[in-house]
């Protein structure tokens, strides 16, 4: 397995960390910006946009959408990589995982295909990490619930112990003897 990883890392066009740092969470989707994708494909942003606009039927709303000016300004403020002045004339396009995979059919360069394969693998890895984290969180919740129930059970046990201690501390009332008592004793 390690050997396979070494072979895969030698064939990488772009470092995984660079791609991972260019995945943003906008409108509830993990997306990549057109300018970032264009840089990865080594094409101009306007060329990427032109190809997408020529093939709009391939990019429904859940594959690609344009950012509103408010979203763009917020994302530019949150991410130091987004520069003031780029994509000002036209709203930036963002692509979901499916949109990125569709780009390989629109951009017919060898690099675009190889980068797309790498990006899709990273999206898949991120999805797996999220699923693993969800499983871990569910297990932690189960343990917390068990501990909560144990705390309640321990509380009941201690309450009963306190009641028993209180009963022991109270003096017993004198008992009247029942039975035969011989006179010669």
TrEMBL record:
InterPro entries: KilA-N_DNA-bd_domain (IPR018873). Residues 21-106 form the KilA-N DNA-binding domain. This is ORF6N domain-containing protein. It comes from Pedobacter steynii.
């Amino acid at each position: 397995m390690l050997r396979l990883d070494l072979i895969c890392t030698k064939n990488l066009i772009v470092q995984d960390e660079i791609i991972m740092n260019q995945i943003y969470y906008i409108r509830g989707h993990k997306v990549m910006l057109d300018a970032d994708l264009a840089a990865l494909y080594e094409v101009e942003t306007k060329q990427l946009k032109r190809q997408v606009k020529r093939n709009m039927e391939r990019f429904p709303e859940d594959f690609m959408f344009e950012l509103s000016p408010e979203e763009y300004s917020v994302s530019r403020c949150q991410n130091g990589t987004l520069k003031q002045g780029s994509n000002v004339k036209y709203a930036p396009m963002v692509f979901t995982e499916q949109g990125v995979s569709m780009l390989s059919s629109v951009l017919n360069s060898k690099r675009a295909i190889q980068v797309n394969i790498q990006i899709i693998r990273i999206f898949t890895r991120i999805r797996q990490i999220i699923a693993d984290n969800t499983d871990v969180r569910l297990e932690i919740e189960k343990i917390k619930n068990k501990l909560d129930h144990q705390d309640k059970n321990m509380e009941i046990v201690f309450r009963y112990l306190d009641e028993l201690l209180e009963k022991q501390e109270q003096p017993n009332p004198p008992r009247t003897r029942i039975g035969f008592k011989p006179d010669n004793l």
